[in-house]
Design brief:
By secondary structure, this protein is mainly α. Helix content is 79%, strand content 0%. It has a single domain, classed as Four Helix Bundle (Hemerythrin (Met), subunit A), CATH 1.20.120. The longest helix is centred in the N-terminal third of the chain and has 33 residues. The N and C termini lie far apart (39 Å). The model has no long low-confidence stretch (mean pLDDT 89). The structure holds fe (ii) ion (2 copies). The site of one fe (ii) ion has 6 residues, from helix 3, helix 4 and helix 5. One fe (ii) ion binds next to helix 3, helix 4 and helix 5.
């Protein structure tokens, strides 16, 4: 089975709003989107790349704001700091990628570099960070964290709904990754649930 299939199988064993299951499903989708960007061209490639950027923005912002504070306690400071540093490095590679013409060979090379960085990062999260958070939190806590992520995902204007595509979507697609992450962070800040 591919990594994405294993991640989906693992997520399927957890309640739908469990933060770990949601993050595993997002890893699977990011891996699939990376493969799809590689094999498409033209407008299709641009659309897949836009979808990838939007999902990455929500995913990494949610890990930073919801998962990592808990991981600091359950997996340790060093572990959390290493994952945060990898995310900043991935963000740097992605910022370079979005300056490039997706039709050019440099884009392919940079995409391969990003894919490798993402795979190593996601593998470390799944091997070290996610198990520590699973063991260190109750099911109830993990579902509360997951619901916060889902609320923020719905609120974050990083993902254009097909029905609202048009000027707003075009503007959104052109926004730099950094600003997508900021929007996702804002949505997460506003998504703290009344307990
Ligand atoms: Fe991450
Ligand atoms: Fe992740």
């Amino acid at each position: 089975m591919s990594n994405a299939a294993l991640e989906r199988a693992e997520a399927a064993k957890l309640p739908q709003d469990d933060i770990i299951g949601i993050l595993l499903t997002q890893h699977a989708r990011i891996r699939e989107l990376l493969a799809e960007v590689h094999v498409t061209l033209g407008d299709a490639r641009r659309a897949k790349f836009a979808e990838l950027r939007a999902l990455l923005a929500v995913h990494e912002a949610a890990e930073e704001m919801i998962l990592r504070p808990v991981a600091r306690r359950t997996a340790g400071e060093d572990e959390a700091a290493a994952r945060n540093a990898e995310e900043r490095e991935a963000e740097r590679i992605l910022a370079g990628l979005e300056q490039m013409n997706p039709e050019r060979s440099q884009f392919e090379a940079k995409l391969t570099e990003f894919e490798k960085a993402f795979r190593d990062h996601a593998d470390s999260e799944e091997l070290e960070e996610f198990p520590a958070v699973r063991d260190g939190c109750s099911q109830e806590q993990r579902q509360r964290m997951g619901r916060r992520l889902l609320r923020a995902e719905r609120a974050a204007p990083t993902h254009p709904h097909p029905a609202t595509a048009g000027a707003a979507a075009a503007q959104w697609a052109a926004a730099p990754f950094e600003s997508l992450v900021d929007r996702a962070r804002d949505a997460l800040s506003g998504s703290r649930a009344p307990r």
